[in-house]
Amino acid sequence: MAVRDITLGQYFPGDSCIHRLDPRVKIVCALVYLVSLFVVRSFWVFGLCILFLAAVIILSGVPFRFISKGLKPVIFLIIITMLINVLFIRTGDPVLTIGKFYITNEGIYRALFMGLRLVLLIFGSSMLTLTTKPIELTDGMEKLLSPLSKIGLPAHELAMMMTIALRFIPTLLDETDKIMKAQTARGADFENGNLKEKAKALIPLLVPLFVSAFRIAGDLAMAMEARCYHGGKGRTRLHQMKLGRVDAVAAIVMVVYLGCVIASRYININIF
Amino acid sequence: MAEDAIISFKNVSFSYLQEEDGSAPVEKLALDDVSFDIQRGSFVAIVGSNGSGKSTLAKHMNALLLPTSGSVIVEGIDTITASDEAPWELRKKIGMVFQNPDNQLVSSIVEDDVAFGPENIGMPPEEIRKRVDESLKMVDMYEHRRKGPHLLSGGQKQRVAIAGVIAMDPDCVVFDEPTAMLDPRGRREIMAIIRKLHDQGDTVILITHFMEEAAEADRIIVMDQGKIAADAAPAEIFSKEDLGVLNVPFAVKLSAALRKAGFDIPAGTVTEEKLAEFLCR
Amino acid sequence: MQIKVENLSKTFSPGMPYETRALSDINCEIGSGEFVAIIGHTGSGKTTLVQHIAGLVQPDSGRVTATLDDGTETVISEKGKAAFAVRRRVGIVFQYPEYQLFEETVLKDVCFGPKNQGLDQEAQEARAKEALRLVGLDPDVVGESSPFELSGGQKRRVAIAGVLAVEPELLILDEPTAGLDPKGHDDILDMIDRVKEDKSLSIVLVSHNMDDVAAYADKVIVMNAGTVVMEGTPEYVYCERGSELKDIGLDLPAGPAFLERLREGGLDVDIRKLGFEETAGEIVRALKAKRGKKTEKNAEQQNS
Fold first, then answer.
1. Which residues of B touch C (CB under 8 A)?
2. What's the whole-model pTM score?
């Protein structure tokens, strides 16, 4: 797998109403959605979350197979979480017994519940990054956090750090790929051997990578200074953020959605 | 200082400490008593081998480095004073484009990157929009304005970097080996923009290893071990037999061969364009 | 060692919005002891092709076969021990190879390849020292210094030595002179040519510099948009098919490029000259012919 196949945190260009939402609204909505996933107590409410997410995906026009690729790097994590639930939850009625070992219906229920929650979590956060330009994302964060700069939170600096990190992820991935290939050509083996050997084999990759990162950082700092950067003071922005009608609609939808999810906790419809 | 000099170096020396394995740090002299003026609106090439002090020289022009002794005067202001108060006031007048196209772009969207400089100097948003669009059109990258830099070629990235500098509307642009990492197509594109800038009346300073590029300048400064080894018009620089580490442009080499064969090629024919024009007459 | 590339195709990120067909149906050969240059625009597939030859990338279809001097053929584009063993005889120097240096000392860094081949300490160092001498560095002077303290040109030599220490039979160099000053550029190319003769290596040089290619290569492979569009001697590529080369936007070496300019300007020159002397000679010939015509014309005018 080429390192560039990772989609998590990538922007999918488009001009849908989801794309056009104010990044601040989108960030808050995403947070509300993520919180809502932890409020949910039963499967049927997840139906509501899925419905909501599906509506967002359809509106955004991002192809589903593209979104599902974001799952690839974490699928292992999800499976482990589910296995832990299946194997270690001892309450409920045993449904499968092999000798001393048994699994319960509650275990299966919890595993599916957790798995679904994680998948919805990843899809939801992918939707934020897929429909928002990284720069809008960081701008939105900066604006949302700026009231906190009064109590000493470096909102501008944090946003700038994120902007730069996002900008240089592809560069550093390419660099990693190149160094790995170059050392492989000299006979380095990154795949075989025990843990200690593997860790040792990483030195020829990590040292040049750090050297590169420092070189890039030095070059970039120089270039930023040459382009008059002197912190957030007195800085204007190309993109002015303005709240529009779509944003108002989104806010209302979000409030209604959250209301429904919270209400569901108090309404008892138990299918299982 | 001459009346119309935009940048003026007066006995500038620059030294730094270099630590060597085990031994005490040694003082290295990167610039050694360098003096010259850059005329407003001129096109000056600075050449010399790696480590001759070219880049160090360039970084003195916008106060990225300050002289250890002597002084650098930019637009009538000493860079030491400027850097104490607001170095960005000076840097918006003297733009700088660096060698590595990847390592000087800040944002993951082309137009936002071009806006970075104007944003830093506090330009009003409408003005930034106008400057960004104009600059991108000038370097012919307007249709790529919403792309990410990692989707562009080296030459295209370097054009974006240039747009980012000219969006601040500088009086002078210093190019520090802008074509060193590019392929021939990228190099041609960058040289075309440099010519265009010069034709518009901007002062252009080009540091390069490619003598064909240097030959296009009005004046060439040759650096060697921190000193100015020569400072003259291209014709005069290339007329010398021994150029040390520099190689002779093809047109100069060919002119010499043709002169030997008995053809009267005028002195000062240093670009292929000029030579071809003469030969076809 | 001889390399044969057959019907090689490769697509990166298939099914993604930025899917790129890097190579499509590539066929070419690298003869034993040959100096082959690969030219083409950035993104034309040059680097991807040489990475396939070095066995660093698996093709989607097609294959790369190596024939050793004793006649044994091995498909090196497949996985497996036999392919791995033969692939070791292919060395590749990447663009800006100095960015891969990582050890505390120059000697240790150059030893990295031999060490991975399983040689003992003594043999490793012997190889490393020889490789350093080959690239024109004195192991007794630079051997114990940190590779990060050297000058740019020296770093690059150390990196090339690191590949030579593996004792390859085919050495691939991807733009080995990028970013160097004119002297560094010439030094590296002369060094490569010398090493090729000393060690009777085959060389594959990926380059944008047509003058270097014309001066050093026995054979030129021209790539465009992931395909091989031409293959032949520099004379064939630059002189016979120069106009096609220009059609895909590639440069000619300085000589033919200038002759073409003169022809466009109306001077009657034969543009099929490659070296500097030949170019100059052709211009002299054409100028004399033109002068002759002029005097003839003047004479005619006087007569009539």
1. 20-21, 49-51, 99, 151, 153-154, 180-181, 183-186, 209, 211, 245-247, 250-251, 253-254, 257-258, 261, 263, 272, 275-277, 279-280
2. 0.86
